[in-house]
Write a structure and sequence with these properties.
With about 450 residues, the chain is α+β, with helices and mostly antiparallel strands. Helix content is about 35%, strand content about 25%. It contains 13 helices and 18 strands. Helix 6 crosses helix 7 (about 215-225).
Length: about 450
Amino acid sequence: MPVVGGIMVPHPPLIIPEVGNGREDVIRATAEAYKKAAKFVAELAPETIVIMSPHSVMYGDYLHISPGKAARGDFGNFGASEVEISREYDCELSKRLCELSIKNGITAGYVGEQDPSLDHGTLVPLYFIMKEYKDFKLVRTGISGMPLDEQYNFGMLIKQAAEELGRRVVIVASGDLSHKLKEDGPYGFEPDGVVYDEKIMNVMKTASFGELLEFNSVFLNKVGECGHRSFVIMAGALDSFALEAQMLSHQCETGVGYGICTFRVTGCDPERNFLEKFYEKEIREIKERKEREDEFVSLARQTVETYISRRQIIATPRDLPEVMYADKAGAFVSLHIKGELRGCIGTIAPTMDCVAEEVIHNAISAATRDPRFPEIRRDELPMLEYSVDVLGDPEVVSSMEELDAKKYGVIVSKGHRRGILLPDLEGVETVERQIGIAKQKAGIPDEDDDIMIQRFEVIRHY
């Protein structure tokens, strides 16, 4: 089994004595655990170390693999340019990883390099590892905004490439946990940051990697983590292996979470095929969701599937509830895939003869005309989650006290500029946040309070 183990480690430059100059004492427990993790890597004696760093090149829809024969870097950005590290790349392994990614439909490769030097997300782990072990080549990858399951699959391709080449590999998942753990920390305090740190450490110390795929991007952005996708890729590289997992430390004294765990491969375990189980669960959930969807959502789904598959606009069905023919109203159709917004278009006031026609019209627009996204592809249709919001009449408000981000949507207007935001959206928990987003959508400066605000209620259909 060419992948023989992995480690989860943070990358605070402060932990390097030449950078910290004594300040590193506050995370001494992390430093001691790092030394143990480095010894663990040395015991495994890898030919190649594959590091995933959040501070390498990152794209929303692409996983960057560092090209070239070698790379160097130093801690000059942190006042210690004398601490320099150079490593030769395993070009054969990285090339095979690129080839497998293309073959398996994962957008990853050598394209898009911006800075060839080693970043601190790579340098910090190497600093500790190379004090114990130096007989290895390196493969460095970034992370991506792609869905977590695709990055897990990328990790599985690392495993496959290592197996094909007979390369003895250790995976290093470089990443900090929440950056929002203390009021006086560099990024302030977010209660869910504490929740994330506790949950992720429980997941990692038990190697319950399937749970890594259950985190949604809104929550991850909220807690300010930077390592989750590195952990997911490592989990993919360790898929279907029996593991001996050990948690070495977890600290948050600086306001940022630092966790260290080690994972030793002890054999094969086909029951630990977490990506396959994740997809099986998704299929069940899609089936259950379709079974419980109401007529509004069913109409939106039928409309999108027909239009994307056959380029036909459906005729208004004749077996809908009477209210869908009798009422006129503005309506928004929202499309999501795996919790990520994939399209949302709507009308504030009715533009069609009935609400059923409004849903049909806006469902096609959400799937094909949202300027933020490419048109829905046919292969995405089974994964789409739909919601339909039917809007009540908007009313002008005179003060913020009349608003409620959970109950009311808002329309913010100034002259010909207008922004709308639906109520009860994940990640929009305050009126101030709601108004700010609506202003941004309208192109109104955030500091401009000379605006008209309207509120409206919706009936949301899932």
